[in-house]
Amino acid sequence: MNHRDNLLGLIGTIYRWRKAIRNVCIVALIGSVAFALWLPNYYKSTTVFYPASPEVSKPELIFGASSKMIEYFGTDKDLDRLLEVAYNNEITDYLVARFGLYKHYDIDSSSREGLFWVRETFRSHYSVQKNKNDALELSIEDTDPQLAADMANAARDKINELSQTLVKKTQGTLLASFDENLKVKQVELNKLADSLRYLQSKYGIYSISQQGDEITNELITAQGEVLRGRARLEVLSGNPIIPRDTIEYIKANLRAYERTLEKLNSPGKNNDNFSAQNFNQGLPLVAVIADLHFQARRQFSYDLERYYQIRAAYNSNIPAIQVVSIAERPIMKIRPKRTVIVVASLAAAFLFTLLAALIADAYKDVNWKATLNN
Fold first, then answer.
1. For residue 177, what are the contacts with CB-CB under 8 A and spacing of at least 6?
2. Residue 69 and residue 256: Cα distance in Å, rounded?
3. Of the four, 41, 81, 105, 184, which is 20 to 30 A from 207 by CA?
4. Which segments in the chain show pLDDT lower than 70?
5. b/e per residue 151-166 (b: at least 16 CB within 10 A)
6. In 204-275, which residue ranges form alpha helices assigned H by DSSP?
7. Do the Cβ atoms of 342 and 32 come closer than 8 Å?
8. For the whole model, what pTM was predicted?
9. What gap in Å lies between CA 144 and CA 93, rounded to an integer?
10. Measured distance CA(163)–CA(50) in Å, rounded
């Protein structure tokens, strides 16, 4: 019975206050309809993209110098880096300047707080978040549907540009380091080349292996011929049967080989440096400098090729994002939900008026004047 009495009391209260409740609801209805119609339509345009892996920009992967497989899509860290870039003031200020948002949002650009309010206003309509598929969704709301799409695409492209700049900044620093290093190595290489030329000219050594074989062969040949010539001369010189011309020929041939042997075993003179003594004296020096020059030249060639690869990667337009879908001109508005506003306003007006009626009925017998005086 108690519940029925309460329900009947509520119905009675509504009936007694029906005109007030009706009037308040009518006012709320008219006001909410006017307010809902006054609100501008907002359209939302969205572009979706993934971060590209920084591995794609590495020269050794671009030119096949590494056997590592290329990952074309970035990791969660790359996603977080793009999010950081997306909310950078540079993105906001770029869009404000490009699309004239001071005028569009009716904000005084000359005021001290103008920059703050235009940024805040834009960011209230701008969002970048990770979706369930680990892609980034960049959305912009605006009263102009085409402007919303244009700003979303421009923001995405600017994020790509700034992310590329971060990579190119690192590559630029590396290029400058390589350039300076190559200049130093070029100077060292020239010094080694000068030293090698000097030693080669001084000792007459231009091909260690070939000249070493030649000197060895000539020494062996000369020594053998000298021994044979002396033996022939010793045997034949006392024999009256042997013609005098033959003896003279043997002597001349012997003197020729003795002079050859003497030349090979003596220091070179008058720029005639092809001797065993010069060769043996200069061999360690020339061999060391030649090896240093070879190693330096090979390292210089490797560094130069590496430099060209980095410069080619630096000059390449490698995207920092992989676009899944571009922002298109939206057809349907995203807000306001006018029906929801009107229904919610009516419900709120009814409930608050009813609550006021219940309170008024509950305390209608109270002498408020006496209560307040006491």
1. none
2. 70
3. 184
4. 1-14, 55-74, 209-220, 222-223, 225-226, 229, 232-236, 238-242, 244, 246-248, 250-251, 254, 257-277, 279, 361-374
5. bbbbbbbbbbebbbee
6. 208-236, 244-264
7. yes
8. 0.65
9. 19
10. 13
Look-up of token digits 């130069």: 304
pLDDT, tens only, 314-325: 777 788 888 999
Closest residue by Cα to residue 56 from 68, 39, 42, 41? 68
Cβ-based neighbours of 279, under 8 Å, separated by 6 or more = 203, 204, 205, 211, 212, 215
Domain-embedded: residue 14: no
Question: Whole-angstrom distance between the N-terminal and C-terminal Cα of the chain?
Answer: 37
- Whether 21 and 353 have beta carbons less than 8 Å apart is answered as yes
Domain-embedded: residue 372: no
The verdict on residue 258 lying in a domain is yes
CA distances (Å), origin 160, targets 12, 136, 164, 171, 317: 67, 12, 6, 16, 11
Domain that residue 208 falls in: 177-315
CA separation for the pair 89, 162 (Å, rounded): 12
**What CATH number is given to the structural domain containing 232?**
1.10.287
Sequence letter at residue 159 = I
Cα-flanking dihedrals φ and ψ of residue 39, to 5°?
-65, 135
pLDDT of residue 103: 94
CB distance 249 to 284 below 8 Å: no
Is residue 40 a part of any domain in this protein?
no
The CA distance from 229 to 54, in Å, is: 79
Q: How far apart are CA 258 and CA 222, in angstroms?
A: 7
- Which phi and psi (to 5°) does residue 17 adopt? -100, 20
* Domain total of the chain: 1
The neighbour count for residue 362, using CB atoms within 10 Å, is 11
